[in-house]
Each structure stands twice: as C-alpha cells, then as structure tokens.
Specification:
- The complex is a heterodimer of chains A (1173) and B (147).
- By secondary structure, chain A is an alpha+beta fold.
- Chain A has 38 helices and 45 strands.
- The longest helix of chain B is centred in the C-terminal third of the chain and has 18 residues.
- Chain B is built from five helices and five strands; from the N terminus they run βαβαβαβαβα.
- The chains are: A alpha+beta (1173), B alpha/beta (147).
Chain lengths: 1173, 147
C-alpha cells in the first residue's frame, strides 16, 4: 500500500511540475506576449483570431477545460471556449494577487456551483518587455480539468482488489473534503464532506497529520486499513486504503499481489505518461522488483510488534518492536515453542484465541493484560490473523492508554460524587428562544442541593416557565443574564432577588457551550434580610445623629468640658471632641464682654437656666450667639458636681436683627438725602416727604402735609392719578411708572416722572404708598423741540427718491419710509418686523436674511443688492445699504438703511455679461471651425502637391516622346497640338506650385526679427534686373526704414512687387521704378512706383484676389497669384496693401507695416540707385 | 526576371507611367541594364531584406542606388527609408527620394531618417530626363559605394 501511495504521489508531483512548467513556458513566451499586448492595445479581431487559434491548440494538447485572457484591470478579453466562460468572482481576487506579485499561481481544487465538475486554475502573469522595463499587461488563466488526467491517475488501482481505493482530501474548517471521484459514492463538484468529529475516519486521521499505516473506518463506516501521506506541493492528504475484510486473505497472496501491483503500475504509468518519462520510470521499475524485500523491511521497522507463530507453535518471525513487547530478544525466541517460553500461558484467553485462529483460521482481535514471568504487567491490543505458516500476531502497547482511561473513570466518579454531595445548588440548563416569546430554559441536570435549596422537585427535563410559573415576567433580569452568559460564554457571578421564589440567590453562571449554561448557587435570603434590617437601623441612627442641631455638653464647675456632642463640636468650629477637651470655658469660652460669672450666678441661684443668651468664642475667634439651657447636677450633699446643658445656635438670627437695624438707618438716610423727590403717603392722608420733593413742588413739608394730592396735581391728570391709586388698592399692580403734571405753589406746571408702589404688611393689609418723583420739565421741552426737528427731517427724507427704513438694534424693522410703502403698495404695519422680506424676490430672500442677521451680529455695514416687488408685481433691483447708529458706549441702538433703485444699471450690466459670454462662445466655436478647416486644407494641399503633378508629368513626358519618336508621322498641325499639350501641362504645374505657395504662406509660422529692408531689397532688385533683356530700366531705392517682420515672407513681398513693376513697365521706352518708405503714425509705409501700363482704378478691388488678373496672358504673362500672396503676408504682419494707378500712367503699390516698440525709430537707411548695366 | 543579385538600380514607384519615364531616361544613358522596379513599400522592403519573392537575394549584393517615391501603397516611402536606414545590414545602400512634392516636412523627415539625396521630379520632361540622367550617372559611375 505504501508503494502505491508513493507511486501516486510521484505521479501527482510529475503532473504538478508539468503544469507549472507549461505555465512558466507561457510566461516567458515573448512572441505570444507580444501578440497579446498588441491585441490588448488595438482590439484587432485578426489578432484575436490568432490568439484563439493558439488557445485551441493549447487546450487540446493539455488537460485544460478553458483558457481566459484578462487585461490588467481584470476584465475578460478572450475566453475559449466561450461556452465554458469562467464566471465565478472568486477568481478575480486571485488574479489581483497575481497581478500584484507577478508570480504564477496554482489555485486549490474547487467545485463549481453551476455544474458538477471540479477544477483548479493556473494564473499566469503576462509581462511585456518594452525595452528593459517589463510592463504588466494582464494574466492568462488556464482552467485545469482534473477529470482528464489527475483523477484517473489517482483512481486507477492496478491490483485485482475488490475494495482498494486512493483518496485525495483537504481539510475545510471542521470537516474533511473529498477532492477526487470516489469508488463507492458520487462526489461531483467537491460536494462530499464529513465532520472532523469522527476520529475513527482514516480521512480525519490523515488531515490531522497521521502518516503511515493506520486502521480505522472509511466513509462507508466500514473497517479499513490504509496508508496515509501528505501530497507535496498541495494542501492535500492521500489515503490509500483497502477493506479489512480483504486483508484477512492469506499474507502470501498479499505479497504476491504486491509484486503484481508493481508490474501493473509500471505498465499503466508507461501508457499514461508516455515515453518521455521512460527513464524516470526505469528507476522506479528496479524499485518495484525489490518490493518483497521492501515489505519485509517495512515489517521489521514497524512500531507495532509483529510475530509469526507456526502451526507447530514455534516462533517463525519476530520484528524489533516485538522484542520490546516481549521484553526478551528475538534470538531467545526464534525456533522455540511458544508454550515453553511463557509458562502458564495455556490457561489464558490469549492462548485460547491463538489456538482458535490456528485451528479455525479466523481473524480475531483482543485487548489483553499480559503478566510477565517477573510479575510485571502490560496491556496490549492484539490482532491475530491466520497466515499459511500459522498465525500472524500484531501487537500494540496500550498500557499508557489503559492507565489514562482508568484514571478518567476514577476522576469521573470522584467529580460525580462531589457534584451530588456539594452544598451549593447546581443546575445544568439549555436556553430556549421561541419567536415572540420571552426567553426560557430547560433544566437538564440538577443536584440534590438544588431541590433542598429551592424546594423545587423533579425539575429535570422541564422548562423553567413550567417549574416556576411567571418567572419569565417577574425575573426577566435573571433570564437575561443566563441568556447573555450562554451566548457570550463569559461567566458571571451575581446576587439577585428572585421574585418568583421570593428568595435571594448568589449565583455563579458559566457556559460550557453555546446556549448551554451551568449555574452554581446558594440561597442567601437570610443573610440579605439581616443585612437589610441592619442597614435600615443604621440609616435611622445616622440620620438622627447627623440631623441633631442642638449642642449638648457636660462641664465641671470650673469650666472644663467633660462631654460634647458632635453638633456642639461643629458649632464651635472644631473637627472632633478631642480638640475641645483642652478648652476651659471659664477662661476662654465666652466673649470678653460676656463674663461667665453671669452664668455661674444664675446656676448657683436657681440650679438651672433656661433661654440664656450669651456670646461664645468659636475656634477661629468669631462670635457664636447661643441660647442655652442648663441644669446643675448635684451629689447627695447638694454639692454641684457638673453642669449638663443644651446649646442652640442663634447667630444668624442675631446677625439678621442687627442687619435690619442698620439697613433701616441707611434707608432713612437715602430717603432724606435723595435728589429725587420721595414721598410716603399713608391711607390716613398723612404725607412724609423729603427735601427734594418739597423743592420740586415749591411747598414746605408742613404745607404739603395739609394738602391733598389733588391740590398740587394738574387737573388734566386727575383721572390718570385716580386710576393708578385705585388699581394699586385693588391689588392689580405692584408698582407703576407714569408721567404726570404737578402744579407748583407758584402756579406753574411741573412735568414729573413718577414711580409709585403700595407696600403691604405680612397679612396683606395696605400700609402706605411709596412714591418717587423726578422733575422732567426740561426734558419735556427738549422733546418737543426734537419732535419738531424729526418731522422736518422726515419730510425731507420722504421727498428723496430712495426708500428709507430703520431697524431695531437686534434686527426687526421698526420704520419704513413713505416711498417704500408707495412702491410696494402694502401698508407699513404688514411690513414691519420682518414682513418686508415678503416683498423681496424669492431668490434673494435667503441670502438677504443670512447677510442681515450676520451684520446685526457683527455691526458691520449692511450692503447688498436685491429685488423688491413693485405694487404692479414687477421686481426692481435695489442697492441696499444700512449703517448702525451707535450709543456713546458704542452699543448699536438702531440701523439706518436706504434702498436705491439700480434696476436699469443692473439690467444693462446683465446684458453686457450676456453679450461677452456669447461672444466668447462664438469665438471658441469659430476657432475650432477654423482649426479643423486649416487641417483639412493642409491635407488637401499635401495630396495636391503629390498627386496632381504625376499625371501632368505623364502628359508632358509622353507628348514629348510622341514628338521625338513619331516626328515623321505627325503633320505640322499635329506637332503644334503636341506643343500646346506640353506647354499647358507646364503651365498647370506652375499653377499648382503657386497655389501651394499661396496656401503655405497663410499657414507657416512667422519668425519675427528686425529686418534691414535695404539689405533685403537691394539683392532682389539686382537679381530681377539681371533676368531682364531690357537694360534700360532705371531702379532707384530710396531710404528704407528697418522694421520687424519674417525675413522669408518679406522677401516674397518685395520679389513680387518689384517683379511686377519691372514686368508692367518693361514695355515703356524709359522704364523707371522708385522704391521708398516713410513713417506715418505707428506705421511705416513702403512704396514701389513704376511708370508702366498702370490700370483702371475701378478694378483696383480685384487686384489682390487669387488668380485675378487685369491683363491678358498674351500681354503680360503671369497667373495672378503674386499680389494675393503679397496681401496675405502683409496682413499677417498687421499691415495693409493698396495701389494707386491710372491707365497708361504707371502704378504705385503701397504696403504698410506696424512699428513695434522703439527699437527702429530713427534708424534709417539711405538708399542708393541700382542700375542694371 | 532580372537576377536579383545583379540589380544596380532599384526604382520604387507605384505609378507605371512615371516608372516608364524614369526607365526611358536611364536607357538614354545606357544605365537601364540592371534595373528592378518595386511597386510598393512592402515589395521594396522584401527586396532590401532578401525575403518573400526576393529570398534568393544576397545582402552582400546591394543595389548601387535606390530611387524611392514617397507616396506608395501599403508602406510609404518615408517609412521604408526609416526601416532601411535603421538596419545596419541595409543602412549603407544609397537612397534618393524622387517625388513630385516639395513639402517642407517631407524633406525634413527624409534627411532626418538619413536619405542620401532628395530630388523633386520636374513636370517638364526635358528637365525630368536631365534630372534622372544626372542621378543615374552620378550614383552609378561617380559615386564610390561602401565595399
């Protein structure tokens, strides 16, 4: 079995390396990656076809089911075959991993949810080498179909075995996942898994790390023997197993089978992997031939003891482990009789079993405690199995295990008795949650004490709600705690009153597993009750003690303090009684001006004192007023032993009395000396007044005392005064303030600001009026003047076009000018406060409100523009400005605001903005149009330049050839026509050149520099003159200003103008050309004047058009592009071109160029005459 | 077909009439014995790099002069020039651009890629003859190629 395992591991390893090798080859395949890169960049369908062809070939050569190309943003670019597209998203995460670390990844086997197959993926990062720097462009995912090679390799069991099978497993959480196809069960898409809890499963043993030969059960629950191993390179485990029943066949046959296995395996391998691994397999083959020896070696090296006893009871074979188990070397036993070597063995079960096996040829197994001759004992697990030679005994030492299980049994019973006998209650319970119901639990197990403590009987298996009805509602907290512990697993210890049982419990709860809990508890009701009653009495006592305010003492006659209660200690300002003990009342307890002799005298006289008020010294020296009761305690001889007394603190009372007295004095003083007139009027009509009151009214205090208030009140204010007095007497008012007029003794009127209030005694009876009057006559006069002023200002204000308003310091509007009311057509009352906001344009309100409230806060100037609705519904823009008016202490008193109608300005502004916006947009649009037109033009002229000339050349060339080669065959007319054809072709070619020139000049970029025009013109003139046959042309170059311009373009200008001048004057008898320049404002004007044929000015507008000519071809040759070019160049320089002429009297061409900067001003060149001679 | 290893002048020209005129000009000077005409850029490159139908050609027998038109089907003249001049096996073959256009960017690019000469084909046949003859005479008889 180990050989098969070994072999299969090697096969899996070879297969794994082959996969990785293929992946590495693809990763390094530069031409392939090149194509992929091109495809990813261009999406070229041809490249796609090429890639799909490659995928197809690759797919057929290996065991892949699908190949997919992803780009680096993990988008699928190609999937082949399309119908097997990988759609699970889990692969994307893996791809990102591969993209990150650029290494080939082989994922684990997975089952696909969609169909019944399982698969694994190889993800290959693709790096395109662009120069030396590799660029990551995507990944290839090769999906391996394990059913093609991997599973067959594992599945093929080459022996004629009924039950053997090889499994590949993986641990998956708490279960074992079977990866390959199984012999006895369907396992499509990795759906078959078994729990790890069944430790007898070979699969579980394998996953837990066991290796080598193991016994157990398989997934059918059938006893099997297997060989376990890890699969290198994968998180997999391999189990190679055979049913135990099959193994009980004779060992020799088994051995024979092993040899057969080797040969068959070899054959299968050869066919499976082909010739290329032949050499490797040859090595393996040699190994297979030695398998019998290897099997024996395996037995020798096993940890389990192996021994074979012949039919004649002689030892035939023993391995090293058997030596240990037998505690004597094999040499001592081999060839000896079993019964001889173990005296007394015949009476044992072991002997009986071996005999049974020898005779009946049946397999048997037992656990046996073996007693060695020296008396020592050991436990063995023995498997006794018939073999042709006799019996094969496999022994496993289980002494340790036996010991442990024995201990377990002991400790279990110990704990059980502990649990049964402990004094604490114990309950093992399970929580029950039912939807819509309060949590509940069921008692699974309780101990005796539970019943004794709770008086609940037969609770096991019953619900708490059944055992203790109502517990769910009355003791919700308890159930919540149980639920919490059994959910979180955190133990809790707590004391709790269980209402349903009327008991206190101390409970400790822990949870052995989710939803289960164990509580150990004690009933502590009695303790709690004792505690509670203790607490209650203590509280009562403490309250009494703390609330005691009367001091108590006992002193000696000579003033030493024997006892003092806490209240007294505190009263005297001490912290504890001990501090007080040192004091002597006789000497220092009383205030200096209150001698203790008073106290002593009275005590001596009456034996007791009640209500004695005295002043004591506190610790900090301040006075303590006390009221004291004391008794003298006498002995049988009537001698005073000590004094017992109580002391009441009356300091506050005393101080209040003193303060009252003092304040009365103060008020009296204020009354007499106040600048305000003050009066006190008693119901009797008696009047007390101060000096100020007298001086305001001009009467003396005595005179006033004889007058009624009506005597010195202005008759117009009688009613007012009467009403106020009445309302006060009726108790409607506490106090009132008003302005009234008095009549002075001299008959004049006094305005007064009057405050009055009616004082009552405690019972509510009216005592007297207290009145304060203030002479405000001057103020009243000033107010009158102000009122007049204000009216005048308001009149002015309301005649202005602006709208005015004022607001209170805190925001709300308190005045709106007439204009505002007129404009809005809404009454002021509706707009005051914040009503005016209603008239604002809805779009402006929010901003106005926030701005206004901010300015009210900061006091900054309020400056805003908003729209106000006119009464006809139209909105006008207003500029609004408000400034705060401040008091002397800089506080804002009011806001003054105005609104100016800026509607027309605003509208004009908006229009302007709109215009410029539109303008900008249309400029951008035009620019774009121009740019694209320019591009088209460029492309057009390029192809004109190339393609239009070739046919012309053919026309010209072949006509020439015709003339040359067929000269004799052509008559004169034919020859003439040929000449016309070729000259037309030449002309066309020139036209094309000129046209291209013209368009190029418009597009070329200009290189501006300062041009010395004289140096420019001179050589051009000489060159042009030299081309002429006519030597009589007189060409004069005057002074020419320097100017900024593009050298090449400016050459064109001069060339065209001068050649034109020469051309059109060449037919004159004395052709004269004058070139000159002058400054005019910011321009320099250049002129080329000739005395040639001139032209009619009415055609001057056609002069500068392309292909526009004023003369026939026969008169003057040319195609009419020259001046168009001139105009283009000059315009590009920011200048102008124009001409003046008269038919037959010559022409002058002018062009102007702008002066830029100051560099050329004053730099002049005086020309010279150029002559063609 | 001409023996590809004996070609002295390679004309790359897609317009058969222009090619004929060029051939005629060369014939007048007895220079047209070893002339090969390639009709597009791909064919020209195949010739240069001895592949396709020119597989039999040898790199050690370069033409003495290549007359290369700019506007060509498939791969244009400037691209052909760039590829040929970049490859050290062909960089020394003299190439003259012969074209109808005198577009400045074309001329600049051609020199940038290492052209040996840039000639604008005149429309006038006499001038054309003249230009082609001088070209042929110069490169075949006067110029000393790399050995």
């Amino acid at each position: 079995m180990s050989s098969i395992t070994f072999l299969k591991l090697r096969q899996i390893q070879t297969w794994h390396q082959e996969k990785l090798g293929d992946a590495a080859a693809i990763k390094e395949d530069e031409p392939l990656i090149n194509i992929i890169n091109q495809y990813l960049n261009s999406g070229d369908p041809q490249l796609r076809d090429e890639l799909i062809r490659w995928m197809k070939v690759h797919l057929n050569s290996f065991d892949y089911s699908n190949i997919q190309l992803y780009d680096k943003s993990v988008d699928i670019k190609i999937s082949f075959p399309e119908n097997k597209r990988i759609s699970d998203s889990s692969i994307n995460g893996k791809i990102r991993e591969v993209l990150a670390d650029k290494e080939i990844m082989m994922t684990d086997l997975r089952g696909s949810s969609g169909n019944d197959s399982s698969y694994m993926d190889i993800i290959i990062p693709l790096q395109f080498r662009n120069g030396s720097y590799p660029e990551l462009i995507g990944v290839l995912v090769l999906r391996v179909d394990p059913s093609k090679i991997l599973f067959p390799v594992i599945k093929l069991w080459p022996v004629p075995s009924r039950t053997s099978e090889t499994l590949i497993l993986r641990r998956d959480g708490d279960s074992v996942l079977y990866l390959n196809t199984l012999r006895y069960r369907e396992n499509h898409g990795l759906r078959f898994r078994l729990s790890m809890k069944n430790e007898n499963l070979l699969a579980v043993k394998a996953v837990l790390g066991a290796e080598g030969y193991v016994e157990g059960i398989d997934y059918r629950n059938i006893p099997v023997v297997g060989y376990l191993a890890r699969v290198p390179g994968f998180p997999w485990f391999m189990v190679t197993k055979t049913d135990k029943s099959e193994l009980t066949e004779p060992l020799s046959r088994y051995l024979n089978n092993a040899i057969l296995i080797g040969i068959l395996l070899l054959l299968i391998n050869v066919t499976l992997f082909g010739i290329w691994i032949w050499n490797k397999r040859l090595k393996l083959f040699r190994g297979q031939l030695n398998i019998e020896k290897r099997f024996r070696d395996t037995l020798d090296n096993m940890i389990e003891g192996c021994q074979i006893i012949g039919s004649d009871w002689k030892y035939l074979y023993l391995n090293d482990a058997a030596d240990v188990h037998n505690r004597r070397p094999k040499e001592e036993l081999l060839g000896e009789y079993y019964t001889d070597k173990w005296p007394g063995i015949k009476d044992t079960e072991v002997y009986r079993r071996i005999e049974d096996c020898l005779v009946n040829r049946v397999y048997t197994q037992m656990e046996n405690q073996f007693i060695f001759p020296d008396g020592a004992t050991a436990w063995f697990d023995l498997r006794i199995q018939p073999v042709p030679e006799g019996v094969f005994i496999l022994s496993i030492d289980i002494t340790e295990r036996k010991k442990i299980s024995q201990k377990l049994v002991e400790s279990e019973s110990l704990f059980r008795s502990l649990f049964e006998n402990m004094l604490n209650g114990f309950a093992y319970c399970k929580m029950i949650y039912e939807p819509g119901k309060l949590p509940d639990f069921v008692y699974l197990n309780v101990n005796k004490s539970f019943e004794q403590l709770t008086f609940l009987k037969n609770v096991e298996g019953r619900r708490a709600s059944e055992v203790i009805p109502g517990i769910q509602t009355t003791d919700r907290e308890l159930l919540e705690r149980y639920a919490r512990v059994s959910t979180t697993g955190k133990p809790e210890v707590f004391e709790i009153w269980v209402e349903a049982l009327k008991m206190w419990f101390l409970i400790s709860v822990y949870s052995p597993g989710k939803d289960y809990f164990v509580c150990v508890f004690d009933v502590i009701t009695e303790r709690k009750q004792t505690e509670a009653s203790l607490k209650e009495s203590e509280a009562r006592f403490r309250s009494l003690y703390e609330n005691m305010t009367i001091g108590m003492y006992r002193t000696t006659i000579d003033g030493r303090i024997l006892l003092a209660n806490p209240a007294l200690v505190k009263m005297l300002g001490f912290d504890s009684f001990e501090q007080l003990v040192d004091r002597n009342l006789e000497q220092e307890g009383y205030e200096p001006d209150y001698p203790r002799s008073n106290f002593l005298e009275k005590m001596e006289l009456y034996g007791k004192i009640t209500g004695l008020e005295s002043v004591w010294n506190q610790k900090n020296g301040s006075a303590l007023y006390v009221r004291e009761n004391a008794t003298a305690i006498r002995d049988s001889d009537q001698k005073i032993l000590y004094y017992d007394g109580t002391v009441e603190d009356i300091t506050e009372q005393k101080l209040a009395e003193e303060a009252l007295k003092e304040s009365e004095d103060q008020f009296r003083y204020i009354f007499d000396h106040s600048m305000m007139g003050q009066s006190i009027t008693f119901p009797s009509g008696e009047l007390q007044v101060n000096d100020a009151f007298c001086s305001i009214l001009g009467y003396s205090a005595d005179e006033l005392n004889n007058l009624k208030w009506q005597d010195f009140t202005h008759p117009d204010d009688f009613e007012l005064t009467e009403n106020i007095i009445k309302s006060h007497l009726a108790g409607e008012k506490e106090s009132s303030r008003f302005i009234k007029r008095y009549i002075k003794k001299d008959g004049s009127t006094v305005w007064a600001d009057v405050s009055t209030s009616l004082r009552h005694d405690k019972s509510g009876k009216a005592l007297y009026f207290m009145t304060t009057i203030n002479d405000i006559t001057d103020l009243k006069l000033a107010e009158e003047i102000l009122r007049n002023d204000e009216k005048r200002l308001r009149d002015i204000l309301e005649s202005l076009p602006q709208l005015f308003w004022t607001c209170r310091f805190d925001g709300p509007c308190d005045y709106l000018s007439r204009q505002w009311i007129d404009y809005t057509g809404i009454p002021e009352s509706e707009q005051l406060g914040y009503g005016w906001l209603e008239q604002l344009h809805p779009d402006d309100r929010e901003k106005t409100i926030s701005d206004w409230s901010e300015k009210v806060k900061t006091g900054d100037i309020f400056d805003i523009e908003f729209r106000i609705r006119r009464k006809d519904g139209e909105y006008h823009w207003f500029k609004t400005r408000a400034v705060p008016m401040r008091s002397q202490d800089c506080k804002i008193i009011k806001w003054l605001g105005s609104n100016t109608d800026i509607d027309s300005i605003r509208k004009a502004e908006e229009q302007l903005i709109n215009y410029s916006k539109n303008l900008e947009e249309s400029v951008i649009q035009r620019t774009n149009q121009l740019e694209s037109a320019n591009k088209e033009l460029e492309a057009f002229s390029y192809s004109v330049s190339h393609d239009l000339r070739a046919p012309l050349r053919s026309v010209h060339g072949f006509t020439k050839i015709l003339l040359e080669n067929y000269f004799e065959n052509l008559d004169e007319e034919g020859k003439r026509i040929c000449t016309i054809i070729s000259s037309s072709a030449s002309q066309m070619s020139e036209l094309i050149d000129d046209l291209l020139n013209f368009s190029r000049i418009g597009r070329s970029t200009m290189k501006m520099s300062l041009l010395n025009m004289h140096e420019l013109v001179s050589p051009i003139s000489s060159e042009l003159l030299a081309q002429q046959n006519n030597s009589s042309i007189k060409l004069v170059i005057g002074k020419l200003y320097k100017v900024r311009g593009d050298l090449a373009l400016m050459k064109h200008v001069w060339y065209n103008l001068i050649s034109n001048a020469i051309k059109y004057s060449s037919k004159e008898n004395f052709p004269e050309i004058l070139i000159s320049s002058w400054k005019e404002k910011n321009m320099i004007i250049y002129a080329v004047k000739d005395n040639g044929v001139g032209f009619d000015m009415q055609y001057s507008n056609k002069l500068f058009g392309v292909f526009q000519r004023l003369h026939s071809e026969t008169e003057f040759e040319g195609n009419g592009v020259g001046l168009a070019i001139v105009q283009r160049i000059v315009k590009r320089h920011g200048g102008m071109v124009w001409a003046e002429a008269e038919t037959g009297k010559g022409a002058t061409f002018y062009f102007s160029l702008p002066v830029i900067g100051i560099e050329i001003m004053g730099i002049e060149n005086f020309g010279d005459n150029v002559r063609n001679n | 077909m001409e023996d590809v290893n004996a070609v002295e002048i390679l004309i790359v020209e897609d317009n058969p009439r222009d090619a004929e005129l060029t051939l005629r000009a060369l014939k007048k000077n007895n220079l047209a014995n070893h002339v090969m005409i390639a009709q597009d850029g791909v064919e020209a490159l195949d010739f240069f790099f001895c592949r396709g139908k020119f597989e039999g050609r040898n790199f050690t027998n370069p033409p003495k002069i290549v007359l290369l038109d700019l506007k060509l089907p498939k791969i244009n003249g400037l691209e052909v020039l760039k590829i040929v001049k970049k490859d050290e096996r062909t960089a020394n073959i003299p190439i003259v651009i012969v074209t109808s256009s005198r577009e400045e960017p074309d001329i600049q690019k051609a020199y940038e890629f290492g052209v040996n000469s840039y000639v604008v084909k005149p429309v006038d046949f006499d001038q054309f003859l003249n230009a082609m003859s001088s070209l042929g005479l110069y490169w075949l008889l006067v110029n000393e190629p790399v050995k």
